Amino acid sequence: MAMCGRRNRSKFILSILGAFVLGYLVFYRNSQSDVAQASRREAPVDLHGNENVELLKKPVYEKPALDVNALGELGRAVKLDLTEEERRKEEESIKKHQINTYVSDRISLHRRLPERWNPLCRDLKYDYRSLPTTSVVIAFYNEAWSTLLRTVHSVLETSPDLLLNEIILVDDYSDRDHLKEPLENYIANLKKVRLIRARKREGLVRARLLGASIATGDVLTFLDCHCECHEGWLEPLLQRIKDEPSAVVCPVIDVIDWNTFQFLGNPGEPQIGGFDWRLVFTWHTIPEHEQKRRSSATDVVRSPTMAGGLFAVNKKYFLYLGTYDTGMEVWGGENLEFSFRIWQCGGSLEIHPCSHVGHVFPKKAPYSRSKALANSVRAAEVWMDEYKEVYYHRSPHARLVRLLL
Ligand code: UD2
Ligand code: MN
Q1: Residue 278: domain span
Q2: Does residue 56 lie in a domain region?
Q3: Strand 281-284 and strand 272-275: pairing?
Q4: Is residue 197 helix, strand or coil?
Q5: Which ligand is nearest to the CA of 366?
Q6: Candidates 145, 155, 169, 224: which one to mutate for ligand 1, based on the most atoms within 8 Å of Cβ?
Q7: Rounded mean pLDDT of 224-246?
C-alpha cells in the first residue's frame, strides 16, 4: 500500500496511521530540501545588479508578433464563409474529433487569449527564484494535430523558462498517422518537449502516471491535450504549492467553444466542483462560508472535487497520496476518486482564481467511455463508507457492475 492509498476500513487503520506519520516525515523533510534547492537558482539581474522580474518571467518561447486580423486571434470566434465542398470537409472533421478541427487548423498555434482574469491578479508578486519547478504532463489519445500542438505551444509561450522543466507528452497508444513520425519530427525542434508512448491503451490514469514517472520537476502539472493557457497561469499554482505543499491546485477552466474556438473565459468568481449521488461531477457557486473565509478575490477557493483534467500537485505529495487508482480504465471516475483521496488523506483541493486555462469541451465523447461506471464503483467502494449505499440506490446498474469487479 502506497502511503495514503486504498483503504480497507478498520483492519488497516493502524497501518494507515503509521503510513501517515512516516509519509508526513518523508514528505515534509523532502519539501523543505526542495525549497532550499529551488532558492539556489541564480537570479537574472539587470546591468545595475537589480533583480529583473521581466527576465525571471521570460517564457521558454516568445509568441510571434501579434496579427490582430488573424483568424481566432485574441480568442475571437471563427465563422467561415465556406463552399459546399469545404462545408463537407468541416462536417467530416467534426465527426472525426467531435471538435471542429477544420476551424482549429486555420487558427495560429500561437494565438493570444484576451485578458480574462481578475485585474487584481496582475498585482500579485512572485519570488520566482524560490518557486518550485514543474513538469507539465499531457496524455493524449488520437488527438487532432492543431489542438494538441496549440496546447504545447501555449504552455511553452506562457510558462517562465525558469519554472518549466519540461512538457511530457504521453501517447496513449493512438493509431492516427499524424501522431507518429510527423509528431516526433515536429517536437524534435522544440525545447523542453519530450514524447513517450504507451505500448498498449492504458487509459488516462495510467498514461498520466507513465508521464509522471519520468518527470523531473518538483511539481506535476497535468493538462488535457486541447488546452490554451492564459497569461500568468502557472505562477499562482506553484506559489500556492510552495506555501502549502499538501494543496492540490486547479486553474479556473475556461471554455473554448468546440465549433468556433471562441475563448469564453471570464474574470468573475470561479465555480467549485461537487458531485451528485450518481457520482457525476457537477459545478456550483462558491458557498457563503467559503467566501467569508477568503480575504481577497485572489485567494484560493477550496473545492470538494475537481473536474479532473487540469491541476498541479507537489510530486512528493502525489506519491504520498498513493497517486491514482491504477485499476481505472480509459476515462471517468478518477477525478472524484482523486478528490476524495486528497480530502480524506489530509490535503486540500483548491481552485486558484488567478490561474486560467482554456479547454475545448467536445461536442460529444469522441471515443468509447464504457468503463466510466466501473471506475465510479471503484471510487465509491474505496472512499464512501456507508454512503456508497446511496450511490447504489441512485445507480442500480452500478451494483451489477460491482459484482463483476
Ligand atoms: C474530464 C477531464 C478529463 C478527465 C475526465 C474524467 C477536464 C477539463 N477534463 O473530461 O481530464 O478527468 O473528465 O476521466 O477536467 N486520454 C488518454 N487515454 C484515454 C482517454 C483519454 O490519454 O484512454 C487523454 C485525452 O486525450 C485527454 C485526457 O486524457 O488529453 C482527458 O480526456 P478527455 O479530454 O476526453 O476528457 P474530458 O475533458 O472530456
Ligand atoms: Mn478534455
Answers
A1: 84-110+120-404
A2: no
A3: antiparallel
A4: strand
A5: 1
A6: 224
A7: 98
400 pLDDT band, cuts 50/70/90, is very high
Closest ligand 1 atom to residue 227 Cα is 8
- Among 136, 204, 252, 281, the mutation site with the greatest number of ligand 1 atoms within 8 A of its Cβ is 204
CA 81, 85, 91, 94 torsion-angle sign: negative
In the predicted structure, residue 328 carries a pLDDT above the cut 90:
yes
CA of 331 to the centre of ligand 1 (A): 6
Kindly report the protein residue whose alpha carbon is nearest to atom 15 of ligand 1: 309
User: Average pLDDT for residues 326-340, to the nearest whole number?
Assistant: 98
The residue type of 192 is: K
- The string of DSSP letters for 160-193 reads BTTTEEEEEEEE-S---GGGSHHHHHHHHTSTTE
Share of residues in the chain with pLDDT > 70 (%): 88
Judging by beta carbons within 10 Å of its beta carbon (0-12, 13-18, 19+), is residue 181 exposed, middle or buried? Answer: exposed
**Grid coordinates of 282:** 457537477
CA distance 313 to 140: 20
pLDDT, tens only, 121-167: 999 999 999 999 999 999 999 999 999 999 999 999 999 999 999 99
Q: Is residue 14 part of a domain?
A: no
Query: Which residue's alpha carbon is nearest to atom 13 within ligand 1?
Result: 308
Locate cell 474529433: which residue? Answer: 97
Query: What's the domain count of the chain?
Result: 1
With cell 480574462, the residue in question is: 116
* Whether the predicted pLDDT of 36 surpasses 50: no
Helix (H) or strand (E) holding 101: helix 101-104
Q: For residue 282, what is the domain's CATH number?
A: 3.90.550.10
Residue 32 lies in a domain: no
Pocket of ligand 1 (CB under 6 A): 139-141, 143, 172, 201, 203-204, 207, 224-225, 253, 307-310, 330-332, 334-335, 359
Instruction: Say how many Å lie between the CA of residue 194 and the centre of ligand 1.
Output: 20
As given in the structure block, the three cell numbers for residue 188 are 524534435
pTM listed for this prediction: 0.91
Is the model more confident about 346 or about 53?
A: 346
Least confident of 11-25, 87-101, 181-195, 390-404: 11-25
Q: Residue 379 falls within a domain, yes or no?
A: yes
For 59, which DSSP code? Answer: B
Using DSSP's 3-state secondary structure scheme, residue 359 falls into strand
